[in-house]
Rrf2 family protein
Amino acid sequence: MRMAEGVEWALHSCLNLAWVGPERAVPTAALAAFYELPAAYLNKQLQALARAGVVYSTPGPGGGFRLARDPEQITLLDVVVAIEGREDAFQCTEIRQRGPGATPDAPTAPCLVDQAMRRAEIAWRAELASQTIAELQAAVRQAAPEVPVRARQWFAATP
Amino acid sequence: MRMAEGVEWALHSCLNLAWVGPERAVPTAALAAFYELPAAYLNKQLQALARAGVVYSTPGPGGGFRLARDPEQITLLDVVVAIEGREDAFQCTEIRQRGPGATPDAPTAPCLVDQAMRRAEIAWRAELASQTIAELQAAVRQAAPEVPVRARQWFAATP
DNA sequence: GCCTCGGTACTCGGATAAATCTTGTCCGAGTTGAAAAGG
DNA sequence: CCTTTTCAACTCGGACAAGATTTATCCGAGTACCGAGGC
């Protein structure tokens, strides 16, 4: 159960977009160069963020990506769901209803294994939903105040 | 981020081993036939459970798998870790230390994105670790008391 | 000097291959149990 | 009838392919900016 690497890229890119601010659009090439990532593939992740409504995309010269909302309104869950999709990691295939183990009763109760796994995923999602990009920004500012300054300067200097 | 299907199989199989009890060893073929699963592949999952110490395996005629501990001592996390591995789903590759975005400071603070994601996974793991096979058994007994009876009967009749 | 028009460069967006992981299958090593032979 | 020996069947265990998902790449459609030409 390895999470897609694009999630890490998307989170860091959202953070960078937050540093730059919503006024200026940052093209994929700049976001990719900042961490030496493959630009074409990062673009794919940013497209997913755009489809999910996390970022706006504007084509043409001077175009690129901007945060669609304030960092306070973007949770980590928003980003993860945008990249990984909405469906749960554990998917109950109802094996209990196949073979000799099947219970022929018509009103089948919900699969308790599924319920237990789902409870764990809900806890995971809740923890992700409780953290916003803005809170991440605040934590970074406190731990390493020079990071946002450097990022803003670099992106301002990169056309 | 789809979880391996083997997790579902392993959980249901552990439940069935719990119904049968630790006295009798159940071979892979019986566990697979109960849900019409591919026996050879289910065997692979059971091997993983054996390596993790969740079940005992005994070869030869009359052999098979038994729970290695009481159902109260087996958590859902034990089973999931046995199948999926111990490493986290989100793996920080430290992209922040590559390219122009790298902070040249020697004492690098921990990656806050990684910390945030890890917090969510810890919540997930905690929820899984809080539920045991025995509790699942109790829930099934209450929701559908005939299920354990049917299972015991079927496995007793299957050599 | 101001407006209009055309071109060019730049951006995203989706369609298209390579790599890696999951899923599925197979056969061999080892062990047990039973049956058969001997005492 | 009891003991010993041999055999055969059954079990797990790891090595070996097929399919699916992730990763990576490319080129085309569309847009905004910039310059040139005309009014």
Notes: The beta strands of chain B are 55-58, 64-67.
